[in-house]
Each structure stands twice: as C-alpha cells, then as structure tokens.
Design goal:
Largest sheet: 3 strands, antiparallel
Strand content: 15-25%
GO molecular function: iron ion binding; iron-sulfur cluster binding
Helix content: 40-55%
Pfam family, one: NifU_N
Structural class: alpha+beta
Protein name: SUF system NifU family Fe-S cluster assembly protein
Number of strands: 3
Organism: Lactobacillus mulieris
Family: Belongs to the NifU family.
Length: about 150
C-alpha cells in the first residue's frame, strides 16, 4: 500500500479549515491586529485578551483561502492559554519549520502544526500558511506596546 503525501496534506488542510474555530469579535479584548496577504487578498483580523502575561482568549475574523483558515485554526489551538514568551517561541518554531531549519526532535514537538510543513509543496501558499502566525506575533507586539 502506498500513500500519496500530497493528497494526505490536502485532506489535512481541508479538515483543519473546517474545524470549529473562534470566529468574530471578543466582548473583552485588549489588543487587535489586521494583516493582509497582498499576493492573494487574504485578510485576517485577530482580537486578543491578555491577562497575567497569558493569552486568555483570541478570536479571528476576516476571509481567506483554505490554507490561511486552516493555519488560523491550528494557531488558535496551539497558543490559547499560553504565556506570551511561549507563544513567541511557537511562532519562531513554526517559521523555522516552514523554512526547513528544524531538526526532527523540534519538529515532533510542534504536534498538529507539522502538517503545515506540506505547504512547501506549494511555495505560493507559504504566505497563506504563515499569515495567522505573523498576526499572533503582531498581536502580542501591539499588546506589549500598550502596557
């Protein structure tokens, strides 16, 4: 039995894009960011609520392709409830994953985000896959700048 990794990757992305996500505006928030991907027109808006140096709640809205929606869904699962410094580390790990700078042990540590390594098969979609991760980093920067 052989596996087609491209098909497996595509199935995983579609599944993640359809996963329940926290859409819409937060009633209680202390940071907001809006990012655009000019190459395809994706728009991602993140609202976050931070307390005691942790991300307590996050919601995203906007629109985008399946890959950017899948990435936003996975990103919210990865970072919710984490310390700000841990989130920044996750963003850097994800960036290194996409650019192939990680060793296998570090890749295994990322759990569900590993499937996004498949985005390298579609280089034009790297910006789509990284948009949510850039947005969460910028959201933290905005929050820290207000403090």
């Amino acid at each position: 039995m052989s596996f087609n990794l491209t098909d497996l990757y595509r199935e995983s992305i579609v599944e993640a894009a359809q996963a329940p996500r926290h859409h819409g505006q937060l009633k209680k928030k202390n940071a907001t960011v809006e990012l655009h991907n000019p190459s395809c027109g994706d728009v991602l808006v993140l609202d976050g609520y931070f307390e005691n140096n942790k991300l307590v709640d996050v919601a995203f809205s906007g629109y985008g392709c399946t890959i950017s929606q899948a990435s936003a869904s996975l990103m919210t699962d990865q970072v919710l409830g984490q310390e700000i410094s841990e989130i920044k580390d996750e963003v850097m790990l994800f960036s290194n994953l996409i650019t192939d700078k990680l060793n296998q042990a570090e890749k295994d540590r990322l759990g569900d985000c590993i499937m996004l390594e498949g985005v390298k098969e579609f280089p034009a979609r790297i910006k789509c896959a990284t948009l949510a991760w850039k947005a969460i980093y910028q959201l933290i920067e905005n929050y820290e700048g207000q403090k």
